[in-house]
Amino acid sequence: MTTITNNGQSIDGQPVRNATPAAAAGPEWVAEPTAYDAILLAGFGGPEGQDDVIPFLRNVTRGRGIPEERLEEVAHHYRHFGGVSPINEHNRELKAALEAELARREIDLPVLWGNRNWDPYLTDAVREADAKGFTKLIAIATSAYSSYSSCRQYREDFAMALDDTELADRIQIDKVRQFFDHPGFVQPFIDGVRDALLKARAEIDGLDLATEIQVLFSTHSIPSTDAAKSGPKSRGFDGDGAYAAQHRAVAEVVMAAAEAALELDSSVSVPWQLVFQSRSGPPSMPWLEPDINDAIHALKGGPTKAVVIVPLGFVSDHMEVMWDLDNEALESAGEEGFWAVRTPTPGIDPTYVTGLVDLVLERRDGVPAEDRPHLTDLGPWYDVCRPGCCENVRLGFKPAVSGLVP
User: Fold this and answer.
1) Is 78 annotated as a binding residue?
2) Mean pLDDT by 10-residue block, N- to C-terminus, for the chain (406 residues)?
3) Strands annotated E in 69-227
4) Domain segments of the chain as ranges
5) Is there a binding annotation on residue 89?
6) Is 154 annotated among the ligand-binding residues?
7) How far apart are CA 232 and CA 386, in angstroms?
8) Does domain 183-342 have CATH number 3.40.50.1400?
9) Which end of the chain has a smaller Cβ tally under 10 Å, C or N?
Protein backbone atom coordinates (compact mmCIF):
# COMPACT_ATOMS: atom_id res chain seq x y z
CA MET A 1 0.00 0.00 0.00
CA THR A 2 1.29 3.46 -0.86
CA THR A 3 1.29 5.88 2.05
CA ILE A 4 1.08 9.62 1.38
CA THR A 5 2.26 12.29 3.79
CA ASN A 6 0.37 15.51 4.49
CA ASN A 7 2.32 17.37 1.82
CA GLY A 8 1.37 14.80 -0.81
CA GLN A 9 4.71 12.99 -1.08
CA SER A 10 4.86 9.23 -1.21
CA ILE A 11 7.00 7.60 1.49
CA ASP A 12 7.45 4.17 -0.04
CA GLY A 13 8.91 5.24 -3.37
CA GLN A 14 5.88 4.52 -5.58
CA PRO A 15 5.35 7.63 -7.71
CA VAL A 16 1.62 7.11 -8.40
CA ARG A 17 -0.72 6.29 -5.59
CA ASN A 18 -3.19 3.40 -5.92
CA ALA A 19 -2.34 2.89 -9.59
CA THR A 20 -2.49 -0.33 -11.55
CA PRO A 21 0.96 -1.85 -12.27
CA ALA A 22 1.12 -0.42 -15.81
CA ALA A 23 0.58 3.13 -14.51
CA ALA A 24 2.39 2.95 -11.17
CA ALA A 25 5.72 4.26 -12.46
CA GLY A 26 4.04 7.33 -13.94
CA PRO A 27 4.49 7.15 -17.72
CA GLU A 28 2.99 9.99 -19.74
CA TRP A 29 0.98 7.43 -21.72
CA VAL A 30 0.43 3.87 -20.57
CA ALA A 31 1.32 1.46 -23.37
CA GLU A 32 0.71 -1.79 -21.47
CA PRO A 33 -2.72 -3.48 -21.47
CA THR A 34 -4.62 -3.49 -18.17
CA ALA A 35 -7.46 -5.86 -17.31
CA TYR A 36 -9.91 -3.51 -15.60
CA ASP A 37 -12.82 -4.85 -13.60
CA ALA A 38 -15.17 -1.86 -13.97
CA ILE A 39 -15.59 1.74 -15.07
CA LEU A 40 -16.04 4.42 -12.40
CA LEU A 41 -18.19 7.27 -13.72
CA ALA A 42 -17.37 10.26 -11.51
CA GLY A 43 -19.79 13.18 -11.43
CA PHE A 44 -20.04 16.50 -9.66
CA GLY A 45 -23.43 15.78 -8.12
CA GLY A 46 -26.43 18.01 -7.55
CA PRO A 47 -29.51 18.47 -5.34
CA GLU A 48 -32.70 16.62 -6.18
CA GLY A 49 -35.16 18.61 -4.06
CA GLN A 50 -35.55 21.88 -2.20
CA ASP A 51 -34.32 20.38 1.08
CA ASP A 52 -31.11 19.27 -0.62
CA VAL A 53 -30.04 22.66 -1.96
CA ILE A 54 -28.24 24.25 1.00
CA PRO A 55 -26.62 20.97 2.22
CA PHE A 56 -25.38 20.40 -1.34
CA LEU A 57 -23.93 23.91 -1.57
CA ARG A 58 -22.22 23.40 1.79
CA ASN A 59 -20.61 20.26 0.37
CA VAL A 60 -19.40 22.13 -2.72
CA THR A 61 -17.94 25.03 -0.74
CA ARG A 62 -16.67 23.16 2.32
CA GLY A 63 -13.46 24.60 3.68
CA ARG A 64 -13.82 27.89 1.79
CA GLY A 65 -15.58 29.91 4.47
CA ILE A 66 -18.49 30.94 2.24
CA PRO A 67 -21.16 32.72 4.37
CA GLU A 68 -24.68 31.33 4.47
CA GLU A 69 -26.11 34.46 2.84
CA ARG A 70 -23.94 33.86 -0.24
CA LEU A 71 -25.12 30.25 -0.38
CA GLU A 72 -28.70 31.51 -0.32
CA GLU A 73 -27.97 33.73 -3.31
CA VAL A 74 -26.74 30.76 -5.32
CA ALA A 75 -29.58 28.59 -3.98
CA HIS A 76 -31.98 30.90 -5.83
CA HIS A 77 -30.80 29.42 -9.12
CA TYR A 78 -31.63 25.89 -7.95
CA ARG A 79 -34.91 26.89 -6.33
CA HIS A 80 -35.98 28.41 -9.65
CA PHE A 81 -35.98 24.83 -10.97
CA GLY A 82 -37.71 23.31 -7.96
CA GLY A 83 -34.47 22.64 -6.12
CA VAL A 84 -33.50 19.98 -8.66
CA SER A 85 -30.26 20.12 -10.59
CA PRO A 86 -30.45 18.15 -13.84
CA ILE A 87 -26.91 16.85 -13.41
CA ASN A 88 -27.77 13.63 -11.57
CA GLU A 89 -30.38 12.66 -14.14
CA HIS A 90 -27.89 13.41 -16.91
CA ASN A 91 -25.41 11.07 -15.25
CA ARG A 92 -28.03 8.35 -14.95
CA GLU A 93 -28.68 8.75 -18.68
CA LEU A 94 -24.95 8.74 -19.44
CA LYS A 95 -24.42 5.63 -17.32
CA ALA A 96 -27.22 3.85 -19.20
CA ALA A 97 -25.84 5.02 -22.55
CA LEU A 98 -22.35 3.77 -21.67
CA GLU A 99 -23.76 0.41 -20.61
CA ALA A 100 -25.68 0.13 -23.87
CA GLU A 101 -22.60 0.98 -25.95
CA LEU A 102 -20.48 -1.49 -24.01
CA ALA A 103 -23.10 -4.19 -24.54
CA ARG A 104 -23.33 -3.37 -28.25
CA ARG A 105 -19.58 -3.85 -28.57
CA GLU A 106 -19.64 -6.95 -26.33
CA ILE A 107 -17.30 -5.37 -23.76
CA ASP A 108 -17.76 -6.86 -20.30
CA LEU A 109 -17.14 -3.82 -18.08
CA PRO A 110 -19.76 -2.82 -15.48
CA VAL A 111 -20.27 0.93 -14.88
CA LEU A 112 -20.28 2.23 -11.31
CA TRP A 113 -21.38 5.82 -10.59
CA GLY A 114 -20.32 8.11 -7.76
CA ASN A 115 -20.42 11.88 -7.16
CA ARG A 116 -18.07 14.26 -5.44
CA ASN A 117 -20.76 16.39 -3.76
CA TRP A 118 -24.05 14.49 -3.52
CA ASP A 119 -25.62 11.07 -3.35
CA PRO A 120 -24.49 8.63 -4.67
CA TYR A 121 -21.04 9.58 -3.39
CA LEU A 122 -17.70 8.27 -4.59
CA THR A 123 -17.41 6.39 -1.31
CA ASP A 124 -20.61 4.52 -2.22
CA ALA A 125 -19.14 3.55 -5.60
CA VAL A 126 -15.88 2.38 -4.01
CA ARG A 127 -17.77 0.25 -1.47
CA GLU A 128 -19.89 -1.20 -4.29
CA ALA A 129 -16.72 -2.09 -6.17
CA ASP A 130 -15.31 -3.85 -3.14
CA ALA A 131 -18.56 -5.73 -2.50
CA LYS A 132 -18.48 -7.03 -6.07
CA GLY A 133 -14.83 -8.01 -5.91
CA PHE A 134 -13.63 -5.28 -8.30
CA THR A 135 -10.07 -4.18 -7.60
CA LYS A 136 -9.01 -2.34 -10.78
CA LEU A 137 -11.16 0.63 -11.79
CA ILE A 138 -10.78 2.98 -14.75
CA ALA A 139 -12.40 6.35 -13.98
CA ILE A 140 -14.16 8.75 -16.32
CA ALA A 141 -14.61 12.19 -14.75
CA THR A 142 -17.38 14.25 -16.33
CA SER A 143 -15.01 17.09 -17.14
CA ALA A 144 -12.83 17.42 -20.23
CA TYR A 145 -10.22 20.09 -19.44
CA SER A 146 -7.21 20.60 -17.17
CA SER A 147 -7.57 22.67 -14.00
CA TYR A 148 -7.78 22.04 -10.29
CA SER A 149 -11.58 21.80 -10.18
CA SER A 150 -11.93 19.88 -13.45
CA CYS A 151 -9.18 17.31 -12.96
CA ARG A 152 -7.02 17.31 -9.85
CA GLN A 153 -9.92 17.73 -7.43
CA TYR A 154 -11.52 14.59 -8.87
CA ARG A 155 -8.22 12.77 -8.37
CA GLU A 156 -8.01 14.02 -4.80
CA ASP A 157 -11.55 12.87 -4.13
CA PHE A 158 -10.72 9.41 -5.47
CA ALA A 159 -7.88 9.22 -2.93
CA MET A 160 -10.13 10.53 -0.17
CA ALA A 161 -12.80 7.95 -1.02
CA LEU A 162 -10.25 5.13 -0.78
CA ASP A 163 -9.03 6.43 2.57
CA ASP A 164 -12.50 7.07 4.01
CA THR A 165 -13.61 3.54 3.12
CA GLU A 166 -10.31 2.01 4.27
CA LEU A 167 -10.06 0.28 0.89
CA ALA A 168 -6.81 1.86 -0.31
CA ASP A 169 -5.00 -1.45 0.19
CA ARG A 170 -7.47 -3.34 -2.03
CA ILE A 171 -8.59 -1.04 -4.85
CA GLN A 172 -6.62 0.65 -7.62
CA ILE A 173 -7.99 3.55 -9.64
CA ASP A 174 -6.64 4.81 -12.95
CA LYS A 175 -8.27 7.64 -14.92
CA VAL A 176 -8.73 8.23 -18.64
CA ARG A 177 -6.90 11.20 -20.10
CA GLN A 178 -8.50 14.63 -20.24
CA PHE A 179 -10.55 14.40 -23.41
CA PHE A 180 -10.94 18.05 -24.46
CA ASP A 181 -9.66 17.35 -27.99
CA HIS A 182 -10.94 13.80 -28.48
CA PRO A 183 -13.15 13.62 -31.59
CA GLY A 184 -16.02 12.11 -29.61
CA PHE A 185 -16.20 15.18 -27.37
CA VAL A 186 -15.53 17.80 -30.07
CA GLN A 187 -17.83 16.57 -32.86
CA PRO A 188 -21.12 17.46 -31.07
CA PHE A 189 -19.87 21.05 -30.76
CA ILE A 190 -18.95 21.14 -34.43
CA ASP A 191 -22.44 19.90 -35.31
CA GLY A 192 -24.03 22.45 -32.98
CA VAL A 193 -22.12 25.44 -34.35
CA ARG A 194 -22.74 24.36 -37.95
CA ASP A 195 -26.47 24.04 -37.32
CA ALA A 196 -26.60 27.36 -35.48
CA LEU A 197 -24.87 29.20 -38.32
CA LEU A 198 -27.25 27.62 -40.84
CA LYS A 199 -30.21 28.62 -38.68
CA ALA A 200 -28.98 32.21 -38.34
CA ARG A 201 -28.39 32.51 -42.07
CA ALA A 202 -31.89 31.14 -42.79
CA GLU A 203 -33.68 33.41 -40.31
CA ILE A 204 -31.80 36.69 -40.77
CA ASP A 205 -32.09 38.13 -44.27
CA GLY A 206 -28.77 39.01 -45.84
CA LEU A 207 -26.72 38.03 -42.78
CA ASP A 208 -23.00 38.53 -43.34
CA LEU A 209 -21.30 35.67 -41.50
CA ALA A 210 -17.95 37.45 -41.70
CA THR A 211 -19.07 40.55 -39.77
CA GLU A 212 -22.59 40.31 -38.36
CA ILE A 213 -22.49 37.20 -36.18
CA GLN A 214 -20.34 36.38 -33.16
CA VAL A 215 -19.72 32.87 -31.82
CA LEU A 216 -19.13 32.92 -28.06
CA PHE A 217 -17.42 29.82 -26.69
CA SER A 218 -18.29 29.79 -22.99
CA THR A 219 -16.71 27.91 -20.12
CA HIS A 220 -16.66 28.12 -16.34
CA SER A 221 -14.40 30.89 -15.07
CA ILE A 222 -11.77 29.94 -12.51
CA PRO A 223 -9.42 32.05 -10.34
CA SER A 224 -6.54 33.42 -12.37
CA THR A 225 -4.06 31.92 -9.90
CA ASP A 226 -5.53 28.44 -10.46
CA ALA A 227 -5.59 28.97 -14.22
CA ALA A 228 -1.88 29.82 -14.19
CA LYS A 229 -1.17 26.52 -12.40
CA SER A 230 -3.27 24.39 -14.76
CA GLY A 231 -1.26 21.90 -16.79
CA PRO A 232 2.39 20.97 -16.27
CA LYS A 233 5.00 23.74 -16.15
CA SER A 234 7.04 21.94 -18.78
CA ARG A 235 4.48 22.80 -21.48
CA GLY A 236 5.22 26.52 -21.22
CA PHE A 237 1.65 27.84 -21.31
CA ASP A 238 0.97 31.55 -20.86
CA GLY A 239 -0.47 33.11 -17.71
CA ASP A 240 -3.89 31.53 -18.23
CA GLY A 241 -2.36 28.03 -18.27
CA ALA A 242 -3.50 24.86 -20.00
CA TYR A 243 -7.14 25.52 -19.10
CA ALA A 244 -7.55 28.50 -21.41
CA ALA A 245 -5.12 27.14 -24.01
CA GLN A 246 -7.11 23.91 -24.36
CA HIS A 247 -10.40 25.76 -24.79
CA ARG A 248 -8.95 28.10 -27.41
CA ALA A 249 -7.42 25.20 -29.33
CA VAL A 250 -10.72 23.30 -29.38
CA ALA A 251 -12.65 26.43 -30.40
CA GLU A 252 -10.32 26.87 -33.37
CA VAL A 253 -10.97 23.29 -34.46
CA VAL A 254 -14.73 23.71 -34.08
CA MET A 255 -14.81 26.92 -36.11
CA ALA A 256 -12.63 25.53 -38.89
CA ALA A 257 -14.80 22.42 -39.19
CA ALA A 258 -18.09 24.33 -39.03
CA GLU A 259 -16.94 26.80 -41.69
CA ALA A 260 -15.83 23.92 -43.90
CA ALA A 261 -19.20 22.18 -43.47
CA LEU A 262 -20.96 25.36 -44.63
CA GLU A 263 -18.64 25.50 -47.64
CA LEU A 264 -17.85 29.15 -46.95
CA ASP A 265 -15.47 30.99 -49.20
CA SER A 266 -11.91 30.69 -47.92
CA SER A 267 -11.88 34.45 -47.36
CA VAL A 268 -14.80 34.25 -44.92
CA SER A 269 -13.90 33.78 -41.27
CA VAL A 270 -16.74 33.82 -38.73
CA PRO A 271 -15.81 35.99 -35.69
CA TRP A 272 -15.53 34.16 -32.38
CA GLN A 273 -14.11 34.58 -28.90
CA LEU A 274 -13.58 32.60 -25.70
CA VAL A 275 -15.68 33.91 -22.81
CA PHE A 276 -16.28 32.85 -19.23
CA GLN A 277 -19.22 32.44 -16.88
CA SER A 278 -20.39 31.44 -13.40
CA ARG A 279 -17.76 33.39 -11.46
CA SER A 280 -18.26 32.89 -7.71
CA GLY A 281 -15.24 34.53 -6.07
CA PRO A 282 -15.00 37.91 -4.31
CA PRO A 283 -14.46 41.01 -6.49
CA SER A 284 -10.94 41.38 -5.06
CA MET A 285 -9.86 38.03 -6.55
CA PRO A 286 -9.05 38.02 -10.29
CA TRP A 287 -10.89 35.37 -12.32
CA LEU A 288 -10.65 34.59 -16.01
CA GLU A 289 -12.48 37.14 -18.17
CA PRO A 290 -14.41 38.41 -20.07
CA ASP A 291 -17.70 37.38 -18.55
CA ILE A 292 -20.12 36.27 -21.24
CA ASN A 293 -22.66 38.93 -20.37
CA ASP A 294 -20.03 41.66 -20.52
CA ALA A 295 -18.88 40.28 -23.87
CA ILE A 296 -22.43 40.38 -25.25
CA HIS A 297 -23.02 43.94 -24.08
CA ALA A 298 -19.66 45.00 -25.54
CA LEU A 299 -20.94 44.03 -29.00
CA LYS A 300 -23.58 46.76 -28.85
CA GLY A 301 -23.10 49.50 -31.40
CA GLY A 302 -21.06 47.33 -33.74
CA PRO A 303 -22.04 45.29 -36.78
CA THR A 304 -23.19 42.27 -34.77
CA LYS A 305 -26.77 41.15 -35.36
CA ALA A 306 -26.60 37.62 -33.95
CA VAL A 307 -24.74 35.62 -31.31
CA VAL A 308 -24.20 31.88 -31.07
CA ILE A 309 -23.53 30.70 -27.51
CA VAL A 310 -21.49 27.49 -27.31
CA PRO A 311 -21.17 25.77 -23.88
CA LEU A 312 -17.70 24.49 -24.76
CA GLY A 313 -16.63 23.80 -21.18
CA PHE A 314 -19.60 21.60 -20.27
CA VAL A 315 -20.50 17.98 -21.00
CA SER A 316 -24.22 18.28 -20.19
CA ASP A 317 -27.01 20.80 -19.58
CA HIS A 318 -26.51 21.27 -15.86
CA MET A 319 -27.28 24.33 -13.74
CA GLU A 320 -24.58 26.63 -15.08
CA VAL A 321 -25.86 26.01 -18.60
CA MET A 322 -29.55 26.32 -17.77
CA TRP A 323 -29.26 29.40 -15.57
CA ASP A 324 -26.15 31.28 -16.66
CA LEU A 325 -26.58 30.69 -20.40
CA ASP A 326 -30.23 29.87 -21.11
CA ASN A 327 -31.41 32.52 -18.65
CA GLU A 328 -28.85 35.27 -18.11
CA ALA A 329 -26.80 35.21 -21.33
CA LEU A 330 -29.80 34.89 -23.63
CA GLU A 331 -31.45 37.69 -21.67
CA SER A 332 -28.37 39.88 -22.23
CA ALA A 333 -28.55 39.13 -25.95
CA GLY A 334 -32.22 40.08 -25.98
CA GLU A 335 -31.49 43.37 -24.22
CA GLU A 336 -29.15 44.30 -27.06
CA GLY A 337 -31.60 43.19 -29.73
CA PHE A 338 -29.45 40.32 -30.97
CA TRP A 339 -30.78 37.15 -32.54
CA ALA A 340 -29.35 34.41 -30.30
CA VAL A 341 -29.17 30.66 -29.91
CA ARG A 342 -27.42 28.30 -27.50
CA THR A 343 -25.94 25.15 -29.01
CA PRO A 344 -26.22 21.68 -27.36
CA THR A 345 -23.78 20.07 -24.96
CA PRO A 346 -22.56 16.51 -25.74
CA GLY A 347 -25.01 14.96 -23.23
CA ILE A 348 -25.57 11.43 -24.51
CA ASP A 349 -24.80 12.15 -28.13
CA PRO A 350 -23.80 8.75 -29.60
CA THR A 351 -20.50 10.16 -30.87
CA TYR A 352 -19.62 11.35 -27.37
CA VAL A 353 -20.64 8.09 -25.69
CA THR A 354 -18.67 6.07 -28.22
CA GLY A 355 -15.67 8.33 -27.63
CA LEU A 356 -15.77 7.75 -23.87
CA VAL A 357 -15.76 4.00 -24.40
CA ASP A 358 -12.86 4.40 -26.82
CA LEU A 359 -10.93 6.28 -24.11
CA VAL A 360 -11.44 3.33 -21.74
CA LEU A 361 -10.26 0.91 -24.41
CA GLU A 362 -7.09 2.99 -24.94
CA ARG A 363 -6.12 2.09 -21.40
CA ARG A 364 -7.42 -1.46 -21.45
CA ASP A 365 -5.48 -2.22 -24.61
CA GLY A 366 -2.42 -0.07 -23.95
CA VAL A 367 -2.77 1.92 -27.18
CA PRO A 368 0.46 3.83 -27.99
CA ALA A 369 0.26 7.63 -27.87
CA GLU A 370 0.89 7.98 -31.59
CA ASP A 371 -2.24 5.94 -32.35
CA ARG A 372 -4.59 7.94 -30.13
CA PRO A 373 -7.01 10.34 -31.82
CA HIS A 374 -6.75 14.04 -30.94
CA LEU A 375 -7.81 17.16 -32.84
CA THR A 376 -5.35 19.75 -31.48
CA ASP A 377 -1.60 19.99 -31.23
CA LEU A 378 -1.95 19.89 -27.42
CA GLY A 379 -3.03 16.26 -27.34
CA PRO A 380 -3.26 13.49 -26.72
CA TRP A 381 -3.22 14.56 -23.07
CA TYR A 382 -1.48 12.51 -20.40
CA ASP A 383 -2.76 9.27 -18.88
CA VAL A 384 -0.87 10.03 -15.67
CA CYS A 385 -0.89 13.68 -14.61
CA ARG A 386 2.55 15.26 -14.41
CA PRO A 387 4.08 16.34 -11.09
CA GLY A 388 2.72 19.62 -9.80
CA CYS A 389 -0.09 19.73 -12.37
CA CYS A 390 -3.16 21.85 -11.50
CA GLU A 391 -2.19 22.95 -8.00
CA ASN A 392 -4.80 24.69 -5.89
CA VAL A 393 -2.84 27.77 -4.79
CA ARG A 394 -4.97 28.31 -1.71
CA LEU A 395 -5.02 24.70 -0.47
CA GLY A 396 -1.76 23.32 -1.84
CA PHE A 397 -1.34 19.68 -2.76
CA LYS A 398 -3.41 16.92 -1.21
CA PRO A 399 -3.02 13.17 -1.85
CA ALA A 400 -4.34 12.27 -5.29
CA VAL A 401 -4.48 9.21 -7.51
CA SER A 402 -3.78 8.97 -11.24
CA GLY A 403 -0.89 11.39 -11.13
CA LEU A 404 2.72 11.73 -10.05
CA VAL A 405 3.19 13.27 -6.63
CA PRO A 406 2.77 15.90 -5.45
Assistant:
1) no
2) 40 77 97 98 93 87 75 85 92 98 98 95 98 98 97 97 98 98 98 98 97 98 96 92 98 97 91 95 89 98 98 96 96 98 98 98 98 98 96 92 94
3) 111-115, 136-141, 172-175, 213-220
4) 183-342
5) no
6) yes
7) 6
8) yes
9) N
